[in-house]
Structure formats: C-alpha cells, structure tokens
Specification:
2 helices, about 15% strand, alpha+beta, about 90 residues
C-alpha cells in the first residue's frame, strides 16, 4: 500500500488500511553509519532507508547486511599443512 506517514506517496510493505503496522507506527531516519549508502533515500521529512524501517537495529550487532558502502575484507583461511606430507611433495 501507499505510505501516508513518512514516505508519502511511495509503496511501503508495512502500510495497512489501519495505518502503519511497523513498531511505533513510523519508519525511523537513518543513523550516521548509513551515510553514503545507496539505499538511503531523501523524502520531504528526512533521509530514510529503502530496505529497513529502523536502520539503528541493523547496525546494533555490527555492520548492516544491506549496507552498500561497507566493504567486507575477505578473510583468507590458510589450511593446516601436514609438514611430513609437505616435505615428501617437495622431494619429487
């Protein structure tokens, strides 16, 4: 349904015939960690996330899973090498 509270005129999955069904009845503005993200959209009432109604909850336990501006470093896990087998491979 079309939002009538914060994102007026835009589709919202939380909007029902009785009003906004999200906790608190409105979407919350982005937090400072969200600045620079491609999912943040400016409406007449402020900046909001297009993917999450309460961005502060996504950042509470670490990086937001929707954040497009956060680059996750690939962790290289080195496999444990048996030294005896490695020495036999080196002799060939």
């Amino acid at each position: 349904m079309v939002c009538t509270t914060v994102r007026k005129g835009f589709e919202c999955p939380f909007m029902t015939a009785q009003g906004c069904s999200y906790n608190g009845g409105i979407c919350h503005e982005i937090v400072e960690h969200c600045e620079g993200c491609n999912r943040s959209i400016e409406y007449a009432s402020g900046w909001y996330c297009s993917a999450c109604p309460d961005p502060s909850l996504k950042w509470k336990t670490g990086d937001c899973s929707f954040a497009s501006h956060v680059i996750k470093a690939a962790s290289e896990s080195k496999a444990k090498i048996n030294p005896l087998k490695a020495s036999k491979r080196g002799n060939k």
